[in-house]
Model the fold of this input.
Amino acid sequence: MSYSAPALGGLLALALLSACQTPKPAAPVKSAAVPASPLPAEAPLIWKNEAYALYADRVEQGPHVGRAVSRTELTSNYQSPANAYQAPRITFKFSLNGADNEMAPGRDHSIVALPRAGSTALETPVLTFGQQFVDKTEVPANTYLAPNTPLTIRLDMRPVLAAFKKQGYFTTYAGEKLYAQDFKGVFVAGNTAPLSWDFANLAGKQELELKDPDGNGIYEVMLVLNQPKAAKSTAGRWQQTLNTADFPQYRSDYPLTDALYNLALEEARRAVEPDSTFRTGQEWAGVWTRDISYSIILAQATLQPKVAMNSLLRKVSANGRIIQDTGTGGAYPCSTDRMIWAVAAWEIYLVTGDEDWLRKVYPIIKNSLDDDRQNAYDAQSGLVRGESSFLDWREQTYPRWMQPVDIYQSENLGTNAVHFQANVVLSEMAGQLGDTTTAGQYWRLAKTIRTGINTHLWQPEKGYYGQYLYGRNFLSLSPKAEALGEALSVLYDVARSARATSVIARTPVTAYGIPCVYPQIPGIPPYHNNAVWPFVQSLWGLAAAKVANEQAFLESMAAVYRPAALFLTNKENFVAQNGDFAGTQINSSNMLWSLSGSLGLVYKGLFGMNFEPTQLVFRPFVPKALQGTRTLTNFHYRKAVLDIELTGYGNRIDSMTLDGSPVTDNAIPASLTGHHQVRIALVNSVPEPTYVVTHAENAFAPETPAVHYAAGRLSWAPVAGASAYQVLRNGRFAARTTETSVAVTPAAYAEYQLVAVDGQGLESFASEPLVVAARPAQLVQLETRAPKSGKPYKGFSGAGFVEISKTANTRLTIPVTVAEAGLYALDFRYANGNGPLNTDNKCALRTLRLGRQPLGTVVLPQRGVAEWSNWGFTNSVLVQLPKGQHTLTLSFEPTNENMNGEVNQAMLDYLRVTRVE
Done:
């Protein structure tokens, strides 16, 4: 389907999107005509689709209206539909210690939460851990889950407890051992609030923990489903109460955009803490590296440069490195997008021209990039390893089988665009400081990353980049679109000329905006999955303006203005399926990067401000639907104050004057001082050619398959909605079938994966790599190479295990003999109980060398709080080894500091040596 921006004119009939019904996944957004609005004919329609309409003075979405009463007052009657028409069939599964370990993905329990005749109590039968229960009750048509429905869930844990007693551990469906001493509790996850599929945070939700009050092995929990929340309706009115006269003042012919600008200004002022640092959001205290950095890039370097400086310096470690916020597996280097800090620091310099600031941040950026180059840069692909920038909730954007170490090994579009630009920035800084040698070095690194992105992530058949490379020893490309990465690739010139144009024109966009990823992951509630984030939408809009895609730029502005006008605040996110703020897992008002995105669309979009070391260049872009006169007064640029008037529409400047005198190159020199008048007149022409936008329904990909091997065949259970399956061998296409098994020829070593494909051609994630090898790997027991630890942990092999920390066994020497030359994967079986899977900062890391030659970084992420008997494998380091004996060393080196600084610890069981080619 395609939406188009209508021409200016009187009010048109608005398509109605029912606000009291949540559409089913992948279903079209239904619309119906409603009577013409009674509003005055002089309020022109700017843009609309079948979901909502943007007018000069209001937003309309079905019966909901957000209106600008004046340029400093807004009203809204928005009411969230989050509790209406919820299906009564509840799907759920149990969890030991908060992990997804009861049944294979796609196998869940279900219960129909409707009262039975003659009974008021609603409870499940006594279910047994690991044995699927499916309620066969038919749900009558037009029957929905009642608000405040109580449900008691009961679970027989006696088989698990008996295993603990008999052998000291319980073996999960995946063959993993959970030791009795590590058992902390049993929880329930599911699809209906308060249940969620957020396994990463499940162990911290006491209300979802089952208890055994009678001590008989039958655990239970009582939940209240579909509880209306007080926050489901927003404030009905916003009126400016804070003085923002010292900020740039914006005025146009469009009262709604002016009021939303003033709302963003007031919230920007509220986002400053008493210590003069940024608060991330109303519900998010503290300074977060990526949040403040994207906010500074979008607008805050211009609006509040001193606060921006203070906030960035708050995110510098004692050893002068940029801090990677707590995150997956214990943060760095599972996550590596901290380098967006460098881009923000450079933006502050471009705006202020502060040479002291430049000299202060330069060594911080250089030291951080130098560490990353050793710990995260992949010399083979030219790409950077680590989690997707800002998409830091594992299940929301990765297949469930991926552990933090798998995420470390992945190579993501957005994070690589960040590292490309960080290297460009360091090169530019070195040039400004007169260090041409360093400038050249980091420009070459930047070009290597750009080449890697365009070689390995570009999808010519789709016209945009893939999400990331992922797998184990052999990586393949996830074809999902990743909105932030696509936008940054255009903004930072990773994608150039025709390729940049194609990214904006062909990346799928849904009715409420561009979702973080496309298509969505089934069974995962909205947050990053099935959600639109306004700061990403704003960056997408700026990318659209850069390539002169008027329709995409205008739609992006509408997608940012709609939620702010209806919710009367700049929320962090909203559901892609229905545009609602209340349906996502976590949300907040007064979000710094959302409000900064709204401001950035004015400064960098409409007015087209591009800050350079020696000048401020104007490249304005005004969609025809927003034509007219607009002013931006009291705009501070270095030592000058500018009052800017912009008239007309289009992106070609007809004339530009400074205090009445013509300006060459559409630029204001950085040396300008004092108060000045800038006037820009546009040619009043639509950019040629007029580019398209790819509109799509908010589709969901098939579920990720689970594959098994036996007797020369791969087999799997049918995947709902799949019409075919693709078999991957060592990350490459090997076969396509419509059956649920396929014969494979045994080889020395192969990793097999399966991708389910539906009738629309949408692909699931690839299944977890399944190794089929003719010979076993060689295991080197490390307690034979270093003193055995005396700690009382279970589950190791051999005679014991070795502790490594910043003081214990900081260098291990490991002799290895291989019988034949080849490509070998080297990894370690380890335990790290210093933190949970999803947060904290105690990921351990070491450097692996062959003699003096560095082979790579070994990453040992956290595996669970105090779960020291929970063993897994590190990332593999691939190395060509000739036949014979070799001496490896695993050592703690200065670049191996993590974000904690003190705890950098793990237990090592053995080294695994696997010949893969």
